[in-house]
Amino acid sequence: MRFSGWQVLRQGLTGNTGWTPQWRNPDPKTEYDIVIIGGGGHGLSTAYYLAKEHGLKNIAVLEKGYLGGGNVGRNTTIVRANYYLPGNSEFYSHSLKLWENLEAELNYNVMLSQRGVIQIFHSDGQRDAAARRGNAMINQGDDATLLDREALRNILPYLDYDNARFPVYGGLLHPRGGTARHDAVAWGYARGADQRGVDLIQNCEVTGIDIENGKVRGVQTSRGAIRAKKVAMVTAGRSGQTAAMAGMRLPIESHVLQAFVTEGLKPAIDHVISFGMGHFYISQSDKGGLVFGGDLDFYASYAQRGGLHRKEQVMQAAMTLMPMIGKARVLRSWGGIMDMTPDGSPIIDKTHIEGLFVNAGWCYGGFKAVPGSGKSFAHLLATGNHHQPAARFQLDRFKSGYLLDEEGTGAQHNLH
Ligand SMILES: Cc1cc2nc3c(=O)[nH]c(=O)nc-3n(C[C@H](O)[C@H](O)[C@H](O)COP(=O)(O)OP(=O)(O)OC[C@H]3O[C@@H](n4cnc5c(N)ncnc54)[C@H](O)[C@@H]3O)c2cc1C
Questions:
Q1: Fewest C-beta in 10 Å: which of 44, 169, 406, 408?
Q2: Rounded CA gap, 254 and 360, in Å?
Q3: Residue 6: phi, psi to the nearest 5?
Q4: Going by CA atoms, what residue is nearest to atom 33 of ligand 1?
């Protein structure tokens, strides 16, 4: 079924009885050409591009829970291409361009809202860094505008500009950045992959990876053994555990990141705003809730909820930047498991085991990467060659020391 205004009208007039399921619910077959472990954003977009662009159909996505129940449905939905380092900047630029056509491509309302992302700066040094980043973004073909204090005040009048510790000097505006509806992205890719013949198998946990003579042969699952010529590990915060099934140790630590949402309010915050003197970012959802988050909890964990100390720090940062937020009541908070690499950049690569591939290490920024990552990973799986925009995301950088350290914080997660 194609979604359209006409379809909404028709279903509305006929009691909404004609909607069909968005994907099938197949039983696993005994063998596939490619098995993708993990039905999050990256696993589903990989399956979609494999089927659509490479004509491969005999593919299964194995998800231990339900589609979209992992980080793809738990994030603060920020989409942007404001990276600085070569390697990262072309990848996120490529991903943002895919976002811009995604609704038409998937025939699915992913609610992409290019409302602009503004990174606030609070010192001369930060202004220089913002100008340098803005120039790098423009060189990459993306958009950036440096706003001085008065220009920023015109569009964000409610910030505390004269805060004694962190006065606001201005901001770097990235107009094409914004937000999207997170689980709709997973569902849109799921529907598109299913329509092209991919089997999406929920409640199917992978418990082992079968390897013979250095070659992958398939996986063991809670629903039986499945043979496969190629296996792709796309399990985000669980990547360390999945790779361990193949006897591998990834350069990844799993940490909790929390997010928060308030009661619905009248429209107040038009952009995505990011505080420059503490890890705090905020936007307002279409339902009116203020959606915000901060730093990692800074201890390795597989829990999907976080500690009170981080809640306190996030609220403090919020009050420092925009004191008006103190009147809003927080409705919910939740956590997700972040796959943190030492340099904060991801991995899209083959492994030393023939036929076994890995897509991981998205840290706290993998939602915006979903289209680009799926496209690049599908290219690698189908052709065996690295896709140019993601060519720097290889595992051997951790051996050579030639890292992609965007934030310059090195291997310490407590400095991210
Ligand atoms: C609070 C929070 C805020 C964030 N904010 C942003 C943001 O604003 N912008 C941004 O770009 N990014 C953000 N992120 C990061 C982003 O959500 C993640 O980087 C991205 O979603 C990870 O990729 P994924 O969607 O494939 O992961 P997931 O959705 O977690 O998918 C992995 C899937 O693998 C499954 N799985 C694991 N082990 C197995 C197994 N053994 N067998 C079968 N299935 C298995 C899991 O159940 C899960 O569904 C945020 C994350 C969090 C938690």
A1: 408
A2: 11
A3: -60, -40
A4: 38
Ligand 1 atom at shortest distance from the alpha carbon of 207:
41
Q: Give distance in angstroms: CA of 201 to centre of ligand 1.
A: 17
* Res 304: pLDDT: 87
- For the CA of 179, the closest atom of ligand 1 is 8
251-262 pLDDT, tens digit each: 999 999 999 999
Nearest to 108 by CA among 246, 10, 214, 4: 4
Instruction: Report how far ligand 1's centroid is from the alpha carbon of 65 (Å).
Output: 12
Say if residues 230 and 255 touch (Cβ distance below 8 Å). no
- Whether residue 193 is predicted with pLDDT greater than 70 in this model: the reply is yes
- Ligand 1 contacts CB of residue 190 (under 6 A): no
At which residue do the structure tokens 């999207």 appear? 180
The residue whose CB lies within 8 Å of the most ligand 1 atoms, and thus the one to mutate among 71, 112, 231, 258, is 71
| Residue whose C-alpha is closest to residue 234's, from 360, 347, 376, 393 | 360
- Does position 305 have pLDDT exceeding 90, yes or no? no
pLDDT average, residue stretch 158-169 = 96
- All structural domains of the chain, each given as residue ranges with its CATH number in brackets, are 26-77+182-251+343-415 (3.50.50.60), 115-176+253-340 (3.30.9.10)
Whether pTM > 0.85 for this model: the answer is yes
Give the residues across from 282 on adjacent strands: 273, 292
67 CA: nearest ligand 1 atom: 49
